[in-house]
Design goal:
Blueprint (H helix, E strand, L loop, with lengths): L4 E5 L23 H12 L3 E6 L4 H12 L4 E6 L4 E3 L2 E3 L7 H6 L9 E5 L2 E2 L2 H13 L5 E8 L10 E8 L5 E13 L2 E5 L5 E4 L4 E9 L3 H16 L9 H5 L1 H4 L4 E7 L4 E2 L5 H14 L8
Parallel strand pairs: 1-2, 1-6, 2-3, 8-14
Antiparallel strand pairs: 4-5, 6-13, 7-15, 8-13, 9-10, 9-13, 10-11, 11-12
Helix pairs in contact: 1-4
């Protein structure tokens, strides 16, 4: 069996290349969050990295990535276009068609179980190790997975966040995901503030989805069918998006498959607010001091 592949969604960085968070250095030698993800993936046992990017930014993207990683792991690129066609006719678009379409864009690059992550999120070594174990021993065309992070480990000190809170059954399989917005700490508790001003308290230990999915390559057949239906419904809506979570949970919704939620106590790190960048830098420095990462990747 081939080693699993890591699919990194980076097409969203196209128009902002070289300026915003995805390529901001956070390590002592200007390493990006994505660099730490690749390092963790190699250490965990992934065999290939596939990047989904915009084709017009391929050369500068490769120039940023390949000097660091070429020869250390197989690298491939898939391109997510803005323009798409439906039944031979061009569908007017103002932006790419979303994360589900980004995954579909890598169909020709992947013929083995794979994991999908965001380019600008730090997930931690344990997440990759657990995912490799799942993709090697448990995945099937009717059994996918996602890594679930503890809500307390995904908050920002600089403002509110939105999170999908997961409910699981006795077998750790996903039952549903409930989107909660305006989540923040208040008086030692985690609350989700509603539009009417009411606040619901959320458990610190609640598992939330941070877009870290383990999938079987048969999902591309499902993605083609679902994307065709998406275009049929939204061809007059140039801002509509086909989302990865809807694709990953499709068999769950149809009662023809399961999604295993794999818990981790790792602290997720991301740059939701400008002020979060320093928090990421501090956390990376702390992990280096603890021996989790070398001074230079």
């Amino acid at each position: 069996m081939n080693k699993p592949t890591l699919l990194i969604l980076a097409a969203g960085m196209a128009s902002r290349y070289g300026s915003l968070k995805q390529l901001d250095g956070v390590g002592p030698n200007n390493e990006t969050i994505m660099d730490y993800s690749i390092y963790d993936a190699i250490q965990a046992g992934f065999g290939k990295i596939v990047f989904v990017i915009r084709e017009e930014f391929a050369e500068p993207f490769k120039s940023a990535v390949e000097p660091k990683w070429k020869g250390k792991i197989e690298l491939e690129y898939a391109f997510q276009p803005v323009g798409v066609t439906y039944k031979g006719e061009e569908v007017p678009r103002q932006k790419p068609c979303g994360t589900g379409h980004a995954v579909l864009s890598a169909k020709e690059n992947i013929n083995e179980p794979f994991c999908v992550i965001n380019a600008d999120d730090f997930y931690g070594r344990e997440s990759y190790e657990k995912m490799v174990d799942f993709l090697t021993n448990s995945v099937s065309d009717s059994h996918f997975s996602m890594v679930g992070f503890r809500l307390k480990n995904t908050l920002s000190d600089n403002g509110y966040v939105s999170r999908g809170v997961c409910s699981v059954d006795e077998n750790s399989n996903l039952k549903n995901v409930v989107e909660n917005t305006n989540i923040y700490r208040e008086n030692g508790k985690i609350v989700s503030e509603k539009e009417n001003g009411n606040k619901d308290e959320l458990s610190e230990e609640a598992l939330v989805s941070m877009n870290f999915w383990g999938l079987h390559d048969s999902i591309f057949e499902t993605a083609e069918v679902m994307f065709d239906a998406f275009l049929s419904k939204n061809k007059e809506n140039p801002k509509s998006e086909f989302y990865l979570p809807d694709l990953a949970t499709n068999k769950l919704d149809a009662n023809t498959g399961t999604v295993e939620v794999i818990p981790t106590n790792t602290k997720w790190i991301g740059v939701t607010y400008k002020e979060d960048k320093q928090d990421v830098i501090n956390r990376i420095k702390e992990l280096i001091e603890q021996g989790e990462y070398p001074e230079k990747l």
